Amino acid sequence: MVRISRLALVEQVQRELAASGRVTLAGPAGIGRSTLLADVVAALPGRVRHLRPAPTDCAVPGAALAALSESCALPVAATGNAEDSLRLRLSVRDLVREAEVLAIDDAHLLDELSADVLAAAVHHTGVRVITTVRSPAAERITGARPFAVPPFDTDQVAVLLEAHGLAYRLAGRVHAASGGIPRLALELGQAVAVPQAALELLAPLDHDAHVTLLLAALAQRPTLRLLRRAGRGGADEHIAAAVAAGLVSITDDDQVVIRAGAVASALVASATAGERARCHGALAAATEDPTARLWHFASMRHTPDAELAGRLAAAAAGSRDRGLPVRAAELALRAVDLAPVTSPDGTVSGWLAGAAVDAAAGGRADLCNRALSLLESSGAARADIVRARIAAVDAAGQALDGLDELLARALVEATGLPELLAAVHLRLALRANLAEGSPDRASAHARHAAQQARRAGDSTAQAQALTMLARMQRILGDPSAESTLAEALALSPEPPVVDLRDSPHYLAVRHAVFDDRLDDARSALLELLPVAEVCGLAEDMVDMLRSLAEVEVRTGRCGAAMVHAARALGICEGAGMSPGPGWFTAAVVELAGGSLSKADGYAHRAVRASAEERDQVYLARALHVTGLIRLVGRDAVGAVEVLRRVRTLEIAQHVVDPSQLRWHGDLAEALVAIGELPEAYRTMVEARQVAARLGRRGVLAALDRAEGLYRSAAGDGAHAVALLHRADEHFALLGMPLERGRALLALSVAQRRRRHRSAAREAQQQAVAVFTEIGAANWAELARATFDGEAGPAVGELGLTDAESRVVELVGRGASNREIAAALFLSVKTVEAMLTRIYRRLGVRSRTQLVTLLRGAG
Predict the structure, then answer these.
(1) In which domain, by residue range, is 338 found?
(2) Which residues contact 220 (CB under 8 A, 6 or more apart)?
(3) Partners of 22 in beta bridges
(4) Tell me: the pLDDT tens digits for 23-73?
(5) How many domains does one find in the chain?
(6) Helix, strand or coil for residue 250?
(7) Rounded to an integer, what distance in angstroms lies between the CA atom of residue 66 and that of residue 69?
(8) Would you say 572 and 542 are in contact if contact means Cβ atoms under 8 Å apart?
(9) Average pLDDT in the 144-158 region?
(10) Predicted model pTM
């Protein structure tokens, strides 16, 4: 297995070992105890004595001591004689004393004699010792309170999957199923049906504890009280053992949570049919929830039962109404299993179609595909099959590439059914936008969807189709987007209970964001979020929270943005949704108010996941935030490389409106920083023409900021300062403090190039104050560095751009143009053009005169 760095954890264990001299690492099989032990001792000075007993050693008295003796080439014998026993202890004590650290891996496998002798040796010698055990109760050597090895978080699981060439986008689902246990995560990522690692995790538990955990795995909401009522008198003891083994946690409200979903699945899969039936019977008698009682009772039956099937279908409808789509899907599928072949025509297929829709809403593609497969094999009505196919598309999330056949069949099967044709065309529009990057084709499908919905008399579907059309028109810079959205809102005056993210009400919020009406957007989102929460659909809640996080960042509420983004990411991971959008939002808020390294990690994962799913829209967004991270990290060359990719993607997608993904000014700033002034100018001019025509005030302010830096680099300092003051004023009026801080930061740079040090310092201090007030730590650090970290006066006082200053420094060191180009990742022609501008600005005519000037300045 590829090692995933856990440097902070290693350092924490090393500090504890240095302080107390005793550390025991505890955790279940596959958690990474051995890897952590190896990483800790690898950096320790002095001699380390290693010991790792084999699984069979625990039954052989003195087996571990024999291994220790062999490794040291010293005689150690174990007999029943008292004198020999004393000699044995003294010999082991001498062996241990020779080492500075004793490292015992899998110390729970030590035989009793070896454990006793080693514990005594450690006590008498005072040698530092670090051990690993499967559970805290197995600690017998150090006497220290065991240190629980934590599971991987979702980010680490993503890195693990990437390192092994596995699907990156599945990190959230794999993390939930594995509980963050690395070995189990790897087996799940490799699509192992019943992972061996899951079965190994259960090995420390006895049979009675297995039965109790099986009950917990089968219960819909297991609690200690429920397990006791189900006849498990030793439930507290059994669950305590499972907690000690790292398999289970107990919530504040007494709920028993099996940390790894794969462990619960392994428990159920490894049980016999009779064992499962007995557990369901006990739970049916113990539970107080009528729906859960019905589920357990039905799980004991295997022969058709019309009355029971009908009750299950009714319970499915009730669960759907209560916002529990996954439970609804499971109940409906169980109803189908028990339905007699004499069931009325259309009854079973209706249940299956409903199950597919519910499963998709709950993010359970497996249940959705099962329902679709049963429909296809049962000769069901076309309408029900099409509904299930549409649900299968919805269950795919952002991964719409590769669904051509599914959508093509749905389109043919929906012929003559306008309501379903509208739904299919709407999914085709979504696919055209996300996977194909073609808003033109998406618009055509959206128009077809609206026409079919109108024919069907379905105003809700018509509003959804017009919403999609308005979204595409906005991308294409079509002014009719607003009138189309108004028409959709007229058809749907109140926010819908479900599919809120596809409603005109949510698009109206997005338009407010694009138009920089941020207070309006925030107020509307705070009203829509409770609607999404009541319904309980993960996709709706995640989109509301992500948009709210974006608005909070732009309005300077970085702390609140972090909370919303974290919640969205948690829901996304828990529901098994496509992770790209959630990781993108996390990168945005971390860049603003969190850790730059975390922002970079989230952005990298968002790029990878979006690329895997062929999601062109979020790929461009993830690359944009990556470019900003490079800018903040003062890597202008890297920023240009990434932001050029964004430009290429947006051109390929025929995006016209610059207000949705505002990369234009950022690319221009990065180009100025590396001295590519002509390309920077073209970028600004092209974007400004469109932004002015469409009235995009925030975009124009960002272009003013970029042009200010451009004018400053070109030697037009007065014009630069005027533009940057204007950008500062516009961002202040728009209520965008983060962007205003960036304008002040650019003003500081421009003033310093004019050698107006006092004005430069004032602008810098204002920028730092703005960034600090809103909690934008990364930007505040960058603002401080622009003044304090620049080159010394020999170069810094010459009024050059950052890129020009680096060129001058290299000239001063005797570098040729080709060497400068290689060092700064520029073309030789670009270096030559930059030197020409530098000569003109500094009043010199040659390289020799430039070097002389530098020496004089020094």
Answers:
(1) 301-395
(2) 287, 289, 292, 295, 327
(3) 129
(4) 999 999 899 999 999 988 887 877 888 889 988 888 888 888 877 765 444
(5) 6
(6) strand
(7) 5
(8) yes
(9) 87
(10) 0.78
